[in-house]
Design goal:
Subunit structure: Homodimer.
InterPro entries: Aminoacylase-1_M20A (IPR052083), ArgE/DapE_CS (IPR001261), Bact_exopeptidase_dim_dom (IPR036264), N-acyl_aa_amidohydrolase (IPR010159), Peptidase_M20 (IPR002933), Peptidase_M20_dimer (IPR011650)
Number of strands: 17
Radius of gyration: 24 Å
Keywords: Cytoplasm, Hydrolase, Metal-binding, Zinc
Bound molecules: zinc ion
Pfam family, one: Peptidase_M20
CATH class of the largest domain: Alpha Beta
Distance between the termini: 46 Å
Largest sheet: 6 strands, mixed
GO biological process, one term: amino acid metabolic process
């Protein structure tokens, strides 16, 4: 396509897509350099915060009443890896087809929102108009690697973060395949449970009682029965009360380990009953479930003698943002969308985002990516976003963010 005719904001977006912030070796220095250059060009005050170990780019537009609670626009700059062979184009070339679909890793998750937030900040600064509250932007690393990251999870516990004095955070949502837009007000808690069973050994030709595998199987079966219940309530819900994935607890057996290997080969001793067997589960729990009670449930499942469990991922707290008339941020957000004839659907995010760290501090957070009429392709091959949808997203944010920042 002839790039001369391209909208300048689309060009900036495509430049940002080309920066290799994909794991496992994200180039954060290049993304930081890009953001800093843009901040300078747009006259947005900025700083690069490095205390958590990787650079976080912060931008700030001071309000008329800087003591009021502020608004934070948070976005992560890292992206998940892309399997080149499964893509029809180079996932880091930001290739655009004739209809304006831009293909690239991060087009939906979430380099689009990074650049839309940046453009909103530029327009506010350029307008010369002072807003009531202070507006902060944070561009963080390591969202995609969860617990081991040096991004938001660590940043929220710093003095720097506390000083931002945040009243509301906007962060990523998901694309919507329909004409509606989705807003997320909570997430499911990711719990990864590792269960170990120990039991009696013996020769494979005998009826040995109380073996590790037997005990583990009993527990696995109980947990898979629970999985089936949840699956059915989701399936049932699609016809009855509109239950979505974010409303139920999902549970998958993702690790299974037993058997006595012969030396260090791939062969096993088929005639030896192993004394130990292990299983791992990926469990995602909606914020409507009491986590203490669910922990008791896991203890009950693993109560049999010889069984024990530990967490590979565990969060004890999973706050959600209340969407009622007491939440003035939500009323303001809704009102802005209504004025633009935008139909909002509210949901629990089926996976995890940085919003959970914010909500667990008691700060409300909305997950919202202004992408509609687009298939959900985050983390998928051939992830794309149409340039018109991207540009409309900037206008949508312009219809929402200044109102939030000007809120009484
Ligand atoms: Zn994301
Ligand atoms: Zn992601």
């Amino acid at each position: 396509m002839n790039s001369i005719q391209e909208n300048e904001h689309v060009t900036v977006f495509r430049e940002f897509l080309k920066i290799r912030t994909d794991h496992p070796t994200p180039d954060y220095e290049s993304s930081t350099k890009f953001l800093v250059e843009k901040a300078k060009e747009y006259n947005i005050p900025y700083e690069v915060y490095r205390e958590t170990g990787t650079p976080i780019v912060l931008m700030k537009i001071e309000g008329l009443e800087p003591n009021l609670k502020t608004v934070l626009l948070n976005s992560h700059v890292d992206v998940v890896p892309a399997v080149h062979d499964s893509w029809k184009v180079d996932p880091f070339s930001a290739w655009k087809d004739e209809s304006g679909n831009i293909f690239g890793r991060g087009t939906q998750d979430m380099k689009c929102v990074c650049m839309q937030f940046l453009e909103v900040a530029r327009r506010i600064v350029q307008s010369g108009q002072k807003l009531k509250r202070t507006l902060h932007l944070s561009f963080v690393p390591d969202e995609e690697i969860g617990g081991s990251g040096k991004g938001m999870e660590k940043f929220v516990y710093t003095e720097k973060f506390r000083q931002l004095n945040i009243g509301l955070c906007l962060d990523e949502g998901l694309a919507s395949p329909t004409n509606d837009f989705t807003v997320f007000y909570g997430e499911r808690a990711p719990w990864w449970v590792h269960i170990t069973a120990v039991g009696n050994a013996g020769h494979g030709s005998r009826f040995i009682e109380g073996t590790a595998i037997e005990k583990l199987m009993r527990t696995i079966n109980k947990m898979l029965a629970f999985r089936q219940e949840q699956f059915e309530s989701l399936h049932h819900g699609q016809h009855e009360c509109g239950k979505k994935l974010g409303d139920v607890t999902s549970l998958n057996l993702t690790v299974l380990k037993a058997g006595i290997p012969i030396d260090h080969s791939n062969n096993f001793s088929y005639n030896v009953i192993p004394t130990q067997a292990e299983a791992g589960f990926d469990i995602r729990i909606p914020p409507t479930v009491n986590l203490d009670q669910f922990l008791d449930q896991i203890k009950e499942w693993t109560a049999e003698e010889g069984l024990s469990f530990k967490f590979a991922s565990y969060i004890p707290k999973n706050e959600m943002t209340k969407l009622d008339s007491d939440n003035k941020w939500w009323e303001n957000f809704k009102e802005s969308c209504k004025k633009m004839d935008i139909n909002l659907v509210t949901e629990i995010f089926p996976a995890a985002t940085d919003s959970r760290f914010i909500r667990n501090l008691g700060i409300p957070a909305f997950g919202f990516s202004p992408i509609n009429n687009t298939p959900i392709l985050l983390h998928d091959h051939n992830e794309f976003l149409n340039e018109k949808v991207y540009l409309r997203g900037i206008d949508i944010f312009m219809g929402i963010i200044p109102n939030l920042v000007n809120m009484e």
